[in-house]
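Handoff note, outgoing to incoming analyst
You'll be picking up this chain. Sequence as last confirmed:
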Amino acid sequence: MAPPGKSDNLARLAKAATLAILLASAGLTAWIWWLPQSLPAAQVWGERQANAFAERRIRQLTKQQGATAERGAPQATTDPEAWKDQNRAQIEHIAQKAEQRYKDQFAYQAADGREYIYLGDTDSYFWLHFARKLLRSGQLCDPGEGERCLDAQGHAPIGGPLAYPYSLHVYAIAALHRLATIIHPDYPLAESARLLLVIVAALGVLPAFFIGRRVAGTLGGMIAAMTFALHPLILERGLGGDNDVWNVVLPLFLVWAASAALSGSLWRRAVFAILAGAVAGIHATIWQGWVFAYAVVTAGLLGYLAIQAVTVVGNTRSLRVWRDDGVIGAAQTLIIFYIAAGLFATLAGAGDSYATIPLKALTTLVDPLLEGGRRPRPARWRGRTSWGPLANFGVPI
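Most recent structure output, in case you need it:
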């Protein structure tokens, strides 16, 4: 066998560099998302309180020395730095006490005796309630009339229907907690929810990187991955135990799979189109607004098919576009995705019939663009730059 050539070595080096970039990006993302657990603001708060005490004390001494000097008695002036050095132990003690008071407002002591930070919002504890219920009883639905999934504790005391009876978020929290308690029996359920979001966020680096690399090369992929990891809005909504991070990561996987299905053999197209449909179905279990990302991808595939057809007409001066391999491949991808997404969304209990899911998704996306400028804005949306479903995309209307 011939020894590997220079091109083979460069290819291996490129793959190794890509893997290193992915691992570094995922690691950095996990560190950033786990950072609030250490509550770094507490140390800053403690230092500020200690410095404020030192400054007040130095001002008091300086004022006393000024009054003594006015009476004619000799008095040495206080050197601020020298005073701080002399009282370093007291200043550090005040800083530690202030830091602990700050932590006490945001932390709780779990059964294992350790302190953990509370989750960020009420939605986090909403999902935590169902994860705990799943762990205790093995099911989310309470007994009720008919086949509807009911939550007896919702809208207390009368109960109500459960909007997400198959939520992947709840099942993932419960599964991760079972795994965590094997290693650490007293591990808090809230920390399992927090750990889950860290893992999901780290996984979100993968589609962000590959989408960016497909558009702008390896550097573009790295920038896309870091943009996802550091975006303030994603961090604001994702830190804690809520399911918002899924609504960013799953659309990224959806776009990645759909774009990968646009090239290659029929088998490759079919596999990635079915994968994209499965991701859409999984998203339907987590959020009723799954149709937004689905509509964007569906519209993108339709647009790609139209571009392929127009290109063929322009190059061949023929309307027989169905004979072109590019048009056939784009149509195959769109059809397979349509069928797979409809099937998986129906299995996920999306609430719409198989045939109307894509139509309603596209209507939901297009209607605000066509009619939003002519409608009076509801009072709750006045003063905002966007409203309606497109507010989730930050599109001004």
